[in-house]
Amino acid sequence: MKHNITLIPGDGIGPEVTTATVKILEKSGVCINWEIVRMGAEVIEEFGTPMPPYVLESIKKNKVALKGPVTTPVGKGFKSVNVTLRQELNLYANIRPIRTFEGVPSRFENVDLIIVRENSEDLYAGIEHMITEDIAESIKIISKKASDRIVEYAFKIAKEQNRKEVIAVHKANIMKLSDGLFLRCARNIAGTHKDIAFYDVIVDAMSMKLVMNPEKYDVLVMPNLYGDILSDMAAGLVGGLGLVPGANIGEEGAVFEPAHGSAPDIAGKNIANPTACILSSVMMLRHIGEAKAANKIEQAVVAVLKEGKHLTCDLGGTTGTIEFTQVVIDKMLEQTN
Ligand code: ATP
Q1: In the chain, what are the domains?
Q2: Ligand 1 center from residue 130 Cα (angstroms)
Q3: Residue 133: which residues within 8 A CB-CB, separation 6 or more?
Q4: pLDDT tens digit string along 142-186?
Q5: 283 with 245: CB under 8 angstroms?
Q6: Ligand 1 in contact with 244 (CB < 6 A)?
Q7: Which of 48, 155, 168, 300 could form a disulfide with 331 if both were Cys (CB 3.0 to 4.6 A apart)?
Q8: What are the beta bridge partners of residue 138?
Q9: pTM over cut 0.85
């Protein structure tokens, strides 16, 4: 079967890591017709906006996108393109699997957790204003609908992946109404999934527990801002942002993208680690029913990292993006034969 998929190369290291990923997908045996869509700073002059209408049209039509990081120009009055994309497509769930890899230097072993981040509201609703010249106010929105939906999604993932427990992360002791509502919703939804253990942890305590014993945790579900912070922090526990994939799931489509940003400091130097983007495409393949190809790619990446001979700079090696990609392809073909 041929899949129509939107490809957003993005900026910074985006084009390098997406090119690497597309090459690997091509060799995996899946048949993809890519619709390449440009967005971000590079199109502002031409279209007057970093996100021209064709971006949403393409994703709404194809229902699936693979996206490199896109930076929103600061101070030019444009709303974050990533937040806009999530809101316009109602991509309500952000999923970030965080795991250790044998062969990758890390202080921990056997970490295998999933952060399920609410993606549509909280302080990201973008409602803020100046009360006086010296006082600004940002409004945190938490709704029953979005909280129920994200917790339900966390349990769905837990079931699909044979996970044992779901933890709701919050700060309901201080934000009694907003986080209090999230927590009430989480407890109610958990009550309908008796086969999976559930408890809740306050976000500051959760941060401490995660940096001490990340291997103890399974599925964590939380409002938007805590998810943003804890997922970057958890990435640091397993070897850095270059390893962490992500999926944004919604009713109108799904956008798969690495957890990292555009890393302009290393762009164009052939040193970016494409693993996060490759593993995002693995999540994408599972989403579109191509589990066999997904497993093949994932096994090849795991094997290459485990050998430890071809690691990118961020992991202490010297292998370039292009060379790493070729090593993964060779490993994948070797495993297939
Ligand atoms: P954003 O605000 O868009 O999330 P950021 O500035 O917080 O972006 P990133 O761009 O994600 O952060 O990256 C932070 C640093 O981590 C980069 O400057 C880079 O040095 C390193 N980094 C991120 N992604 C990768 C990668 N794929 N390979 C190697 N190093 C990376």
Answers
A1: 1-94+244-337 (3.40.718.10), 107-238 (3.40.718.10)
A2: 31
A3: none
A4: 999 999 999 999 999 999 999 999 999 999 999 999 999 999 999
A5: yes
A6: no
A7: 300
A8: 128
A9: yes
